[in-house]
Amino acid sequence: xxxxxxxxxxxxxxxxxxxxxxxxxxxxxxxxxxxxxxxxxxxxxxxxxxxxxxxxxxxxxxxxxxxxxxxxxxxxxxxxxxxxxxxxxxxxxxxxxxxxxxxxxxxxxxxxxxxxxxxxxxxxxxxxxxxxxxxxxxxxxxxxxxxxxxxxxxxxxxxxxxxxxxxxxxxxxxxxxxxxxxxxxxxxxxxxxxxxxxxxxxxxxxxxxxxxxxxxxxxxxxxxxxxxxxxxxxxxxxxxxxxxxxxxxxxxxxxxxxxx
Length: 260
Ligand SMILES: [Zn+2]
Prior knowledge:
It is a single chain. By secondary structure, the protein is an alpha+beta fold. The protein has one domain (3-257). Helices cover 34% and strands 23% of the residues. The protein has helices at 39-53, 59-62, 79-92, 94-99, 159-178, 202-217, 244-252, 254-257, and strands at 3-10, 21-27, 30-36, 101-103, 109-111, 115-117, 121-123, 126-134, 180-188, 222-226, 238-240. A hairpin with a 2-residue loop joins strand 7 and strand 8 (126-134). Helix 1 (39-53) crosses helix 5 (159-178) and helix 5 (159-178) packs antiparallel against helix 7 (244-252). The chain is globular and about 55 Å long. Residues 57-58, 60-61, 67, 93, 95-96 line the site of zinc ion (ZN).
């Protein structure tokens, strides 16, 4: 299993200006009410772009609908048809593969999203956000969530192609839709919460913390960052990119990292 974790500051406040919610957030030890962009709203803009970039999209996703309402899938009532339905939906649609689905049939068939997005919190005129991608799950047919084990192959033959499209779309989305300003991206076999420092040292604090996390958790971390504030210093875990583009290439580099 490999997680790709991206913590960033993005600038496109205009795109989400009508989607903010007032929420209490712990900022530097104090609870404050701020205008937050819900993670589900941010993630839906990735869904829109993936729908355009994917080479296989079901009719429901094409029309911006959830697969959940497909009447043909509502009758699943036993283990064997649950397996077939799960396989069919993942194979047929890259959007459902990456972003998950839930079919409320008598025998529910569920896949959680391979991409998790936090709420976006305002800092210094931009927004801070963390994205976690479970790369090993894209194109995988493991039924762990519903306790099923299938005797057929556990991953689609086109898994590598699907990972490349999902991650290439992710980097395009970061650059074009979110208009990312600075970011730290790292790959790790365990999920790491990057912390809650919300000031202009946001990226720098995470870069500084990662070697400590690596040593404490005794795990391997590969990391690349770009800090437009120039406050972050490279270290033995985190390499500094000269341009945003370099970090985006790191994000797209899933195939090299599958050996982690
Ligand atoms: Zn779909």
